[in-house]
Specification:
The complex is a heterodimer of chains A (309) and B (792). Chain A has 309 residues and is mostly beta strands. Helix content of chain A is 10%, strand content 37%. A nine-stranded mixed beta sheet of chain A has the order 16-9-8-5-6-7-3-2-17, with no helix packed on it. Chain A is globular, with a radius of gyration of 21 Å. Chain B has a 22-stranded antiparallel barrel. The two termini of chain B are 53 Å apart. The chains are: A mainly beta (309), B mainly beta (792).
């Protein structure tokens, strides 16, 4: 809904008023103890699994974020099987590589525990791996770019193919998903947002969107910009936990929180906790677990449809 | 109901009515009207020369005076009118005397009429009340030249907003939903067009505006902070009058005329914005079908059946429409019917029946192009009410008001249908019905020539029922990362229409005026106000989508107690009036919201609510110049508004977004000659509080903020200040050689200041690992405008 309101505000802003934004210089008032930041997931795909560990820093300190080095990182599944993650390049990116014997970590229905030892503290995050439906198809139609698909500075196409993917949410309230679209192998930037779904809708709706085909705003979220003829569209539909949904939902909120209808600032939740409850060292970020459905197509003018949007 | 009647009886018995033993006296009553157009004059003074006593007319221009038999000279006067003198003999029969007052004329050098009314601010019991004449409001330089009632009252002491363009206003540290905005007695739920840029009231149709911030009389109830009482014009009863204007945003036209001369008249006033019409040629492709406009229609008829009976019917209908494929519209409508009846010269009745509705709708498929993949959302709140108000003029020293109200609420807070590939789902928030009953009695007593007081008591009862098969009970489960509010909802079966919660409250009201000399007085007041409906809004400025919700078994009514003290003094023969007031307020059951709260279409929204208490206190200084070529006022407000809601801000007090420490407003209007007049406003307001993140962390190449707990609103946006000016040139003739006209040239934000609405942080657009702070100005430059107004 916020998206629509934004569009309206944009309209009004352009036409009737002279609102303006100025970047200003502000300084951090105090220096704080940095937190451990976890950015990573395990999936059911047979590929490198990556968990990136960094340190938080003062908000207006724009130097490069510092990696956490020399940490011990493991993921344990609910059967007690341990997967070791290694910092291969010494840059805080901890990787597990599949082998012929152990091709994947993630299995739907199992629960995974991330354990991190770093700088004398022990952290832990627990996440179950949820089910994901298959993607039935990807369809597209030729059209002009909408207001939010346009960006001349970044050279986004002004006309092209607007794509949607089709999949059906499972029966049962509370299935959450993240959708990632790739154009010719490159993940599409979404300008301060990520595409997530709760059941088949973009927002939590207490079961109203349960068990149906993903609603239009979810389906068309794979087109933050238009595709061109012969572009390869790849869509990843990932299951996430409800906590992870809340994480993204709040994260999106906090970086798009200006204007007339801003909300009071609130913290983005985390599932990473210090096992020593008395420690002052805290963690942020999220350890996710996903099952992934993938679908891919190459844009072909002859296969373009009409009346999709 | 039973408890209601019992309590009502108790209320009535508390008051010695003093209805007997009035034999040696007789009553004079009647109406005071404007000779030009027959509009009833509100607050006109009727002064008895021989007894040095008097009264004032009520909202309908009616007065009643009970005096010992004898010969009297009545002086009838009102600010801006020539006084009228009536000699009369009061004998065995009650007298009915209707008076029409001539307007003072435009002659600037005119000898000032000494009217009793001029020191009304000293003599009356009212405190914390601001009346602004439409004449004054029309001269205030306005944004884009649009005369705006709600923006004008923001120049009064004690009134603030969360910022430019924000909908509504905040009175003495109260929320925007705590103002009862009445248009001819019917509540208006959203006072704004285009979010908060323009208000819904058409200045050509408004007769009188009164803002009551404290010492609220017993006849008013239902909101916790203030009453904005807007009375519509009755329509010219003498001759056809056409008013209109062409401005930058709206075009206006109003027609008023007698139906039967001096007996019945009407007014119809309409406005429409035309940005869309002007923008049409520039819109192409997907935007060609864009609609964005707002309009309103105001109409009223009145019929004076005889000297004892007058009926009024008034209505308002306004709407904002935005959209292309996707549509969004919202609007208010009100209809009120009133009957003024004079029973016995001393007993006056105003019976009102009204209907009020606020609704909005969103539709993702406005043109019905893809019914199989659509989203529609509607929401509304509806009221029906009947409300008799009696005034009993016992003697010039004793006036009794009493009455009651039945007010029904029908809440459809949000129902949506989402269709995906032809599969349709309906969801939303539960429909609710409520009834608010109230009864009140108030007595205004002049105890001596120096001391007068008003005591009043209002009793209100609120019964809530759900129209669904289930309802929710809130239980505390403990705050956790997954559950930021700490509450869960238990679902219980419900019989539709069964009363699930019932609240009742006594609301005492008190006001005291002690004259401390000819031109000064000391006033004190106390009031308790109860509010049973609440606007669910968690954004900086309230949005048109915000939903009004009922008090329920989980949401308790808001209760506010306010004490105010004031000193009032006039100078130079009432040319200047000045006042100083202090107030302190305590607020119970204030609503705030847990992190990640979802208030739209969420049947479980009560889980996300947090309840706490609030307090507000302040000092208001006000000085006004009423006469001469230069008129205007200076107002200064020092205030604080805080709340304490667990677990927010670690359970400590924090300031509301509308907490603005210092507010200074200056309004000046200068009449150079018959042709030219000038206006200027200046406003200085402390910036709103905001919170800066302390740290940032990076996820997938984007920096996100981390806000440590316990720092709500620890910083302030720089102060807001602005100067607006206007010049009005009066023409002797309007377009077609008839009537009169004027050009209004105005500049809003003359010195082109980028006043910040807020400061927020964000990742840099080109490199989202970098972070920056942004200052947002809603109106970031000066805004010139020209308006043409005409009257036939």
């Amino acid at each position: 809904m916020k998206k629509y309101i934004k569009i309206i505000v944009l309209f009004l802003g352009v036409i009737s008023l002279t609102s303006c934004e100025d970047v200003i210089n502000l300084e951090d008032s105090i220096t704080v103890t940095s937190m451990l930041v976890v950015d990573g997931s395990v999936t059911n795909l047979s590929e490198n699994q990556v968990i990136k560990l960094t340190k938080s820093q003062n908000y207006f300190n724009n130097s490069t974020i510092q990696p956490v080095l020399g940490a011990s990182v493991t993921v344990t599944d609910s059967d007690g099987k341990i997967f070791q993650f290694k910092d291969l390049k010494g840059d805080g990116v901890y990787v597990w590589q599949p082998t012929a014997q152990v091709p994947v970590i993630g299995v739907v229905g199992k629960t995974y525990t991330l354990k991190i030892s770093a700088d004398g503290e022990n952290y832990q995050a627990v996440s179950p791996l949820k089910r994901v439906p298959v993607i039935d198809s990807i369809a597209y139609q030729f059209d002009e770019a909408r207001v939010n698909q346009r960006d001349d500075a970044k050279g986004k196409p002004k006309e092209g193919y607007d794509a949607q993917f089709y999949a059906r949410d499972f029966e049962g309230i509370g299935d959450c998903y993240r959708i990632i679209a790739y154009k010719n192998g490159k993940a599409l930037e979404m300008n301060n947002t990520v595409s997530i779904a709760y059941d088949a809708a973009i927002q939590k709706s207490s079961g109203a969107a349960d068990g149906i085909v993903f609603t239009l705003p979810v389906r068309s979220s794979i087109s933050p910009e238009l595709y061109l003829e012969k572009d390869v569209i790849k869509v990843e539909l990932r299951s996430i936990t409800e906590g992870h949904y809340d994480f993204w939902s709040q994260a999106r909120q906090e970086i798009n929180n200006g204007g007339l209808f801003a909300r009071p600032a609130a913290n983005i939740p985390t599932n990473v906790v210090n096992t020593n409850a008395n420690s002052t060292k805290k963690a942020a970020g999220w350890f996710g677990t996903s099952a992934v459905s993938i679908s891919q197509t190459t844009v072909d003018a002859a296969k373009a449809q009409k009346g999709l949007r | 109901m039973k408890t209601f009647f019992k309590s009502m009886m108790a209320v009535l018995l508390l008051f010695p009515l003093g209805l007997l033993g009035q034999n040696a006296k007789q009553t004079i009553s009647g109406y005071v009207k404007d000779a030009k157009n027959g509009e009833g004059l509100i607050g006109a003074s009727i002064f008895v020369k021989e007894l040095l006593t008097g009264t004032t007319t009520n909202t309908y221009g009616f007065y009643s005076l009970t005096l010992p038999k004898g010969d009297y000279t009545l002086v009838i006067s009102s600010v801006g009118y020539r006084k009228s003198i009536k000699d009369l003999k009061l004998a065995d029969k009650p007298l009915s005397i209707n008076v029409e007052l001539q307007e003072d004329g435009q002659e600037l050098e005119e000898v000032v009429v000494k009217a009793q009314k001029e020191d009304d601010n000293i003599k009356s019991l009212e405190m914390s009340v601001n009346k602004v004449e439409m004449k004054t409001i029309k001269k205030i330089p306005a944004l884009l030249g649009e005369v705006d009632l709600v923006r004008a009252i923001q120049f009064l002491p004690g009134v603030t907003t969360v910022g430019e363009g924000a909908s509504g206003f905040n009175v003495r540290g109260g929320g925007v939903d705590q103002n009862l905005i009445l248009l001819d007695d019917a509540p208006v739920y959203n006072s704004s067009h285009l979010f908060g840029f323009f208000s819904v009231f058409n200045p050509d149709a408004v007769k009188d505006v009164k803002l009551i911030k404290g010492g609220i009389p017993a006849q008013y109830g239902g909101r916790a902070s203030s009453i904005l009482d807007v009375k519509m014009k009755e329509g010219n009863a003498k001759k056809l009058e056409i008013n209109g204007g062409i401005g930058a945003i709206f075009s206006r036209l109003s027609i008023e005329a007698p139906i039967v001369k001096d007996k019945a008249s009407f007014i119809v006033a309409a406005r429409r914005s035309y940005i869309d019409v002007l923008a049409k040629p520039f819109l192409t492709g997907n935007n060609a079908n864009s609609q964005f406009n707002f309009y309103d229609l105001t109409a009223k008829v009145n019929y004076k059946i005889d000297n004892k009976n007058t009926v009024f019917l008034s209505g308002y209908f306004g709407r904002d429409v935005f959209g292309q494929d996707f549509g969004f519209n919202w609007g208010n409508s009100t209809l009120s019917a009133r009957w003024n009846h004079v029973f016995s010269d001393k007993l006056f009745l105003n019976a009102t029946a009204f209907y009020s509705n606020y609704d909005y709708a969103l539709d993702s498929d406005l043109n019905n192009k893809r019914p199989n993949n659509a989203f529609k959302w509607t929401s509304n709140i509806e009221n029906y009410s009947f409300k008799p108000d009696f005034t009993y003029y016992i003697s010039p020293n004793n006036t009794l008001t009493f009455g009651g109200q039945i007010l029904t609420y029908h809440f459809k807070p949000g129902s949506a249908t989402a269709t995906s590939q032809g599969e349709k789902r309906e969801f939303g928030q539960e429909r609710k019905n409520s009834i608010e009953y109230s009864a009140y009695i108030g007595e205004e007593l002049k105890l001596s020539s120096a001391v007068s007081m008003q005591i009043g008591l209002r009793f209100s009862q609120y019964d809530y029922s759900s129209q669904e098969d289930s309802y929710y009970v809130r239980q505390y489960a403990g705050v956790s990362a997954e559950n930021p509010s700490g509450y869960t909802l238990q679902v219980l079966p419900n019989t539709q229409g069964k009363t699930l919660a019932s609240y009742n409250n006594f609301e005492p009201r008190f006001a005291l005026n002690v004259n401390t000399g000819e031109s000064s007085s000391f006033k004190a007041s106390y009031n308790r106000l109860t509010q049973y409906i609440h606007l669910m809004s968690n954004t900086a400025a309230s949005t048109p989508l915000d939903v009004w919700t009922s008090s329920t078994n989980n949401i308790k009514p808001q209760i506010v107690d306010q004490v105010a003290l004031g000193y009032f003094k006039n100078f130079n023969d009432n040319t200047y009036e000045a006042s100083a007031e202090v107030y302190y307020k305590e607020m119970q059951n204030q609503i705030d919201y847990a992190d990640r709260s979802n208030l739209f279409l969420n049947p479980l929204f009560e889980k996300d609510l947090l309840f706490g208490k609030g307090r507000a206190y302040g000092l208001e200084l006000f000085a006004k110049k009423n006469k001469g070529k230069l008129t205007g006022w200076v107002s200064y407000t020092l205030q604080r508004s805080e709340r304490k809601v667990e677990p927010l801000n670690n359970g400590e007090w924090y300031v509301n977004r509308y907490d603005r420490t210092h507010t200074l407003n200056v309004i000046a209007q200068y009449e150079l000659n018959k042709k030219w007049s000038f206006g200027a406003n200046f406003a200085y307001i402390t910036g709103v509080p905001y919170t800066l993140p302390e740290q940032k962390f990076e996820i997938e190449g984007t920096a996100y903020p981390y806000i440590p707990l316990g720092t709500r609103g620890n910083l302030r946006v720089p102060a807001y200040h602005r100067l607006d000016v206007s010049a009005t040139k009066k023409n002797k003739k309007a377009l077609f050689g008839k009537g009169t006209s004027e050009w209004v040239f105005s500049v809003y934000n003359l010195y082109n200041r980028r006043n910040p609405f807020s400061i927020y942080t964000r990742p840099n657009e080109d490199n989202p690992t970098q972070t920056e702070a942004v200052r947002l100005s809603i109106i970031g430059s000066f805004v010139p405008a020209v308006t043409y107004n005409f009257t036939f």
